[in-house]
Design goal:
This protein has about 250 residues and is of the alpha/beta class. Helices cover about 45% and strands about 15% of the residues.
Length: about 250
């Protein structure tokens, strides 16, 4: 697999390059500044010979579709142009679809907003991936049925939350062909956003080997982002490589 690091600024993207990772997943905090950072990011891309992926902005109020249309959609349009300029072929987006918390009429309207996003990315030949937050596989069933090109960014850390068994297993079982990207980080389980600790690998409760083994059995060999502080990327890359080597040697 190709291993990358999350970067919320140009400085963090530079850390990713210094760690000799394969790519940086860019998440600039203010979408209005994205265009002015294109030149600097392209210089880093050339300097370190890595490639770039893009992470979307925070969703905002996930229950207010009017706000999503008026605020989020314009940001996504800018982000898609930003990704195209960086030759980034994958955009990951938080777009909460958990049916335990969101009423069906709101989800139906959110799917029409998602349709607009899908039309935008397809014009640029970019893969849009939804990231699992608290959702279970059934929460993505309608979206995947409607949009054959929609991908999944499987967040292994999020899978440990609000579930007695990490939901990564059920996502791998249900949608192996949709998994286009992976996020990895550790935590100790829990039921709230505050429990999403993004700990170094091995400092939480997640059993990574069986999850990675399940992924390898599907033939997954794409990208995986260490969603961790940039100053620990070198040692965390080594940990992840050890895990992957141990899993792949048994397959």
């Amino acid at each position: 697999m190709l291993i990358g690091g999350r970067a919320h600024s140009l400085t963090e993207a530079d850390y990713v390059g210094e760690a000799h990772l394969d790519f940086a997943e860019i998440n600039l905090p203010n979408h209005h500044h994205a265009s002015q950072d294109i030149s600097a990011l392209l210089q880093l891309k050339k300097k370190y010979n890595f490639f770039l992926l893009v992470h979307g902005p925070e969703e905002g109020n996930p229950f207010d579709c009017n706000e999503l249309r008026s605020s989020l959609l314009p940001q996504i349009k800018i982000l898609i142009d930003f990704a195209a300029a960086l030759e980034a072929r994958v955009i990951t987006l938080h777009f909460w679809l958990d049916q335990r918390f969101i009423d069906k009429p709101i989800i139906e309207e959110k799917l029409t907003i998602l349709e607009t996003m899908m039309n935008l990315v397809q014009k640029k030949r970019i893969k849009l991936c939804l990231e699992n937050l608290s959702e279970r596989p059934s929460d993505f069933e309608k979206a995947f049925s409607l949009f054959p090109e929609l991908g999944l960014t499987l967040d292994i850390g999020h899978g440990e939350l609000l579930s007695p068994r990490n939901t990564s297993y059920s996502f791998i079982e249900s949608y192996p062909e949709r998994i286009s990207h992976i996020h990895i980080h550790d935590n100790r389980g829990g039921t709230s956003p505050e429990d999403d600790l993004h700990l170094p690998l091995g400092e939480g409760s997640i059993a990574f080997k069986p999850i990675l083994s399940a992924l390898c059995r599907t033939g997954y060999n794409k990208t995986i982002t260490l969603e961790l502080a940039p100053d620990i990327l070198i040692q965390e890359k080594e940990k992840l490589e050890e895990l992957l080597n141990a899993v792949q040697s048994k397959e």
